[in-house]
Amino acid sequence: MPQGKIKRLVADRGFGFIEGDGGDLFFHHSEVQGTSFEELHEGQMVDYVVGRGKKGPCATEVKVA
């Protein structure tokens, strides 16, 4: 499972971006597992799975590392 750092959170819109080895990936609040989206913060390390979204690759199954 890849690991990355939360680069940016847009809390009022419910999404963010993870900085990983393959570049930045979008993630939606519905993909956060084991904690709530509101508890995440920029710079935090997370594990994720790379999936396909409407606009290209995105992060799914996002969990705090």
TrEMBL record:
PROSITE patterns: CSD_2 (PS51857). It is found in: Cytoplasm. Residues 1-64 form the CSD domain. It holds the Pfam family CSD. GO terms for cellular component: cytosol. Keywords: Cytoplasm. The keyword Glycoprotein does not apply. SMART domains: CSP. One of its GO terms (molecular function) is nucleic acid binding. Its main location: cytoplasm. This is Putative cold shock protein A. The lineage of its organism: Bacteria, Pseudomonadati, Planctomycetota, Planctomycetia, Pirellulales. The gene is cspA.
